[in-house]
Design goal:
The chain is of the alpha+beta class. It has one domain: Nucleoside Triphosphate Pyrophosphohydrolase. Helix content is 21%, strand content 38%. The longest helix is centred in the first third of the chain and has 13 residues. It is globular and about 50 Å long.
Length: 204
């Protein structure tokens, strides 16, 4: 069942034209949205970012990825390089690049930043174990894709930073809170793959 779902997602997304955000002088980053057939469902790899003072995404749940390096030929290469560095999975050797997904403009404290993040969908034949770089990643988890489609795991999380306070939509799973940029990417992926159309819009 999981393998068939992965094949179905691939067919839907390979010929789809992603939304590309053009922003002059914007920094560019890329992440890997990695799917693998588990025992009962497709699973998605997420990381918990290491905590660093001054990092607006410190400690957040996220996809492996980072800023484009001058040595990266493409943004897809950025996603693969960062995934290898952060979690020890070589998507170039063991994965399949399925599709580029919609660009997302990063935000912090509700303010749009001059950084565009491009997600790339990759497929593995099974959920690979991870070897993490502790300077970048605190933990990793493979989460069943069905969690993000199940309303029982949909909720909100309160965010307070300085004078900024707001409740944001989030996925809540086994003590993990997925919100903000990663929430938006998952929401956009599910909609593009025709797996969900009823998620909240404000995931910034």
């Amino acid at each position: 069942m999981a393998v068939e779902l992965l094949d179905s997602i691939g067919r839907r997304l390979r010929d789809r034209s992603p939304n590309v955000v053009e922003l002059d002088d914007a920094r560019r980053a890329a992440v890997a949205v990695t799917l693998a057939p588990g025992r009962d469902d497709l699973e998605v790899l997420l990381i918990r970012r290491a905590e660093h003072e001054g990092d607006p995404w410190s400690g957040h749940m996220a996809f492996p990825g980072g800023h484009q390096d001058p040595t990266d030929a493409t943004l897809a290469d950025t996603a693969m390089r960062e995934t290898l560095e952060e979690v020890g999975i070589d998507l170039g050797s063991h994965g399949e690049l399925v599709s580029r997904l919609d660009d997302v403009q990063a935000r912090a404290r509700g303010v749009a930043l001059d950084m565009i993040v491009t997600p790339f969908l990759f497929a593995l034949d099974h959920p690979h174990p991870t070897t993490i770089d502790r300077s970048e990643v605190a933990d990793t988890i493979w989460i069943p894709l069905g969690v993000f489609r199940d309303e029982r795991f949909h909720g909100t999380t309160p965010i307070a930073r300085g004078n900024f306070r707001a409740d944001f939509p989030a996925f809540l799973y086994e003590g993990n809170t997925v919100w903000g940029l990663t929430y938006r990417m998952i929401r956009d992926f599910l909609r593009a793959a025709l797996l969900e159309d009823g998620l909240a819009d404000d995931g910034r």
